[in-house]
Amino acid sequence: MTTGRVRLESVFRRAAEEGRGALVTYVMAGAPDMPTSEALVRACLEAGADVVELGFPYSDPIADGPTLQRAAEKALAGGTRLKDVLALAARLRADFTAPIVLMGYLNPVLAFGEARFFEACVRAGVDGIILPDLPPEEGEELRAHAAAAGVAIVPLLTPTSHEGRVRAAMKDAGGFTYYVSVSGVTGARAELPQSLPERLGALRQQSHLPVAVGFGISSAEQVRMLVQHADGVVVGSAITQQMATGGVGAAKTFVASLVSGLKKG
Q: pTM of the predicted model, to two decimals?
């Protein structure tokens, strides 16, 4: 059986064989409403995204900046819950082969029920999950359920992650390693840290998985620079901003511009 881990790693491997980085696009499901967010995800995939991250809303998104916090608030106000995000994943899986990763916080998963959640992930065609508030040293039962279902737990590492934390995060990890480019919360930034290439090089030596860098990426120029030092990039807040100002069409054009920056060398 082809698992989510295998599908995710295969996408990054194929991108490397094509001499480019992989593009992971993040969309908060249900913001500003479910039909619009679904249209946005489809537009991202049609524009060339390799992997899609579906955010599931939570009332206290500690790792998210203002743009994604507002998106989560809109999704919750509109009634979006984890079951609705899983249903969206299933609709996408029916039409696309690209890997689907859910990103959110631990409490909704615990409330849903860990075993039930991963069973639902398999039915919906979800390949991986990112939980920023799950410490790598904890969640043994959750990790066991994920492994049994073949769903990758994608590790999230930051500039402050020490060597021991990296080793712990990599222990049960799958799919790819998500490296946060800056200390702090999500949000598009005009400039990224000058030390980022060096940090990415060090992490790639420690990680047995492809490394994708996210948080703060807002232009094709930044993508072009980062894919020389990483296996892929993750873009979320900038896509959300494009949609807020210009609609799904503007967001699709923006994603297409990011794809143009993926070529290595």
A: 0.93
